[in-house]
Amino acid sequence: MAGAASVLLGATVALWLAFGPPQDWEGGMRWLRHGLALGSLGVIVLAARLIFPATREDTADTAPG
Prior knowledge:
This protein has helices spanning 2-19, 28-51. The chain is an all-alpha fold. α1 (2-19) packs antiparallel against α2 (28-51).
């Protein structure tokens, strides 16, 4: 549940940054916009880890050969 909410939050912020008012931000505010974009990407990645956790049984100990 927390993973799905985090994906929605990250996607919402990313879409707002792409299509919303921050297009006019210049100077130092431009760096804030880039930071928010990277932060929303990080939230989406962490949410994917919450939704699909990797377990030790999922990973192979040896390379296929």
